[in-house]
Write a structure and sequence with these properties.
By secondary structure, this protein is an alpha/beta fold. It is built from 16 helices and 22 strands.
């Protein structure tokens, strides 16, 4: 039996065809070849077409079977979906989008979230939501109510990006409790949707999709969707999770004390705990993890730096169009630690949660035209991302989280030995890189959700590719460089 896992990101759609019996991916694709566009009609905005995601999901599915022609589409028996978190898709009754999706790095709703935080009260928000409303899905929906009332009046459902893809597949509007928590729409005390927040913002409860389990049959592939995807009608969608909880799942990070990281478009450190304990300074966020139950609470503390891979992609387009990412990594490694005084602040992709929801923009300091060249900027970029992550990780340490081992997929910026070693040495944590990614996590989740394998059995094929140990000598230098970087942080 085979499953397909989809990872619906803001840069690309990744898909994996997964052999459940042998615990191995037999085909893996990413479309499009270049990054998907983001529209920024005003400063701080970021939008994408939900129908563009759906079109690339179809293309990715067809490419899987081109890559693995020995597998018949009829052998696929379940589907899993991972998706970019915090987005807002508004649709009519038939699931047609009424406007572009307002995606995760869009900052327009920050003032709305801040206003609600003070009107409702920090105590209520932090004790019930474990977060401030901030810049999350609920705040974005309130922005539509205020600024685009005609569109809101036409809307039947509000959805997260993964909910929309599931709707296109099954014809059913559904969501998960974990998904609602990432939109600040889940009351952790009452263990139900935050109806009081919806009432405060005059969000119609009838727009809330049906809540289904993260693991389990969430709907079945319609005849129309099956034809578009080249699959069989009736296949269950059996798993759905936001990209960061799913990345943790893909790495078998499921229990208190375990930590996962990613460095794709954004950079994330995600630590699992069992206590509903918010960060009182609201520098990182707490959501329901994929394996949370009321009997065995599992919550994910999520620290995010919005611009990591997006920074590196910008540098490639602007400074290094003739180089591959591998060549950029090699060039960065030729510059000395500390980039000979160049400091880069990677905050150019919207409001940063750990900086109090401020959109400070990216900046470079210490640049001297007669001394520095591309290698210094590239090294400063990789160090700057690590420094930004460490700035947030220190806040997590204040709340009791420890970083002895960090698991990550062998992908994106973790393909750079310089990046991985810098993070290991500065944090003092062992970095374990695994042969997995978000699409594989979704495919494994589908196998668990369909009831074919247990949570333990599904990770038999997971392997450590490389372990990076902290370098104590390098740590001394990096902490000195970091101190200068933090001192100048605005």
């Amino acid at each position: 039996m085979f499953t397909i896992g989809y990872d619906v990101g803001s840069s690309s759609i990744k898909a994996v065809l997964f052999d459940v019996a042998n615990n191995v991916a037999v085909a893996s694709v990413s479309v499009p070849k270049e990054e998907m566009p983001m529209e920024a009609r005003q400063p701080g905005w970021a939008e994408q077409s939900p129908l563009m995601w759906w079109e690339y999901v179809q293309q990715a599915t067809r490419q899987l079977f081109e890559q693995a022609p020995q597998i018949a589409p009829e052998q696929v028996r379940a589907i899993g979906i991972s998706y970019q978190m915090h987005g807002l898709v508004l649709t009519d009754q038939q699931g047609n989008p009424l406007r572009p999706a307002i995606i995760w790095c869009d900052s327009r709703a920050v003032p709305i979230g801040e206003k609600a935080l003070h009107a409702i009260g920090e105590q209520q928000c932090l004790s019930a939501l474990l977060n401030s409303p901030g810049n999350f899905t609920a705040s974005k929906l309130r922005w539509v109510i205020e600024q685009e009332p005609a569109i809101y009046q036409q809307a039947r459902y509000f959805m997260l990006p993964g909910d929309f893809i599931a709707f296109k597949m099954t014809g059913k509007a559904t969501t998960t409790a974990s998904g609602l928590s990432e939109g600040t729409l889940w009351d952790f005390q009452q263990q139900q949707p935050a109806f009081w927040l919806m009432q405060h913002w005059q969000i119609a409860q009838a727009m809330l999709p049906e809540i289904v389990p993260t693991f389990g049959e969430q709907g079945y592939l319609t005849q129309e969707a099956a034809q578009l995807l080249g699959l069989s009608a009736g296949i269950p969608v059996a798993y759905r999770a936001g990209d960061q909880p799913n990345n943790a799942f893909s790495l078998n990070v499921l229990h208190p004390g375990e930590v996962a990281a990613t460095a794709g478009t954004s950079g994330v450190v995600y630590a699992v705990g069992e206590k509903a304990q918010p960060d009182m300074q609201m520098r990182f966020n707490t959501f329901l993890h994929v394996n949370h139950t009321s009997q065995s609470p599992r919550l994910g503390a999520l620290l995010c730096v919005n611009g990591t891979g997006s920074l590196y992609a910008w540098l490639r387009r602007t400074l290094c169009p003739e180089l591959s990412y591998q060549q950029m990594n090699e060039l960065a490694a030729t510059a000395p630690a500390g980039a000979d005084g160049v400091r880069l602040y990677p905050f150019g992709n919207g409001a940063e949660r750990m900086l109090g929801n401020r959109d400070v923009g990216a900046s470079v300091a210490g640049l001297q035209f007669n001394r520095h060249h591309r290698a210094h900027l590239l090294r400063a970029a990789q160090e700057g991302v690590v420094f930004a992550l460490w700035y947030g990780m220190k806040a997590m340490q204040e709340s009791g989280f420890q970083f002895h081992t960090i698991r990550a997929g062998h992908a994106n910026m973790f393909l750079s030995p310089l990046f991985a070693q810098t993070l290991a040495s500065l944090s003092g944590a062992v970095i374990e890189l695994y042969n997995t990614d978000g699409a594989q996590g979704a495919a494994r989740g589908a196998a668990v959700g369909a009831g074919w394998v247990s949570m333990q059995e599904v990770f038999k094929g997971l392997q450590v590719i490389e372990k990076i140990q902290p370098d104590s000598a390098q740590q001394v230098t990096l902490k000195q460089v970091y101190a200068h970087w933090e001192a100048a942080l605005q």
